[in-house]
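Quick start: what a row looks like.
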Amino acid sequence: MDDDENIKFYNETLKRHLEFDEVVEELIKYIESDKNGRYKITVGTDSNGSNNAHFVTAIAVIKEGNGGRYFWAKTKEFFCPTLRDRIFKETMRSIAIVQELRGRLKEKVGEEYFWDDKITVHLDVGNNGETKDFVDTVVGMVKGYGLTPIIKPFSFGASVLADRHT
């Protein structure tokens, strides 16, 4: 996360903005509401297609087979003159959010739950279209941080949830 930003996430269900710690608490509360459920958390970022891009990051908790809940935050504008710049910035924003999220979840609920593939990074790239040249690089970036990347057409966290708010 950018240290100089005070990121506020919005949730449609709660109809309000939340600080990052409040998002973590809401994720935990949602998961603890049915301890028999199987959950995954996704983080994805999308940007508008302009040189002065806004970035929207979505954090979603999914109860497998039964929907979920998500939170989203929009940044100030950043100058990104190329598609490559935007894709790399999207990827790094998602990685930063996941790392912060994992750290805070580990503090609150322990290490055992949130590892393996339970937290994934959804990338707004795919093997078709204009982002295909970036797939290997951004997938490698995510894996280099020990995280699990998901690309289109399965990366709904970026290409659907975050995209709704760009």
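That is the whole record. The two ends are 18 Å apart (CA to CA). The chain has a mean pLDDT of 92.
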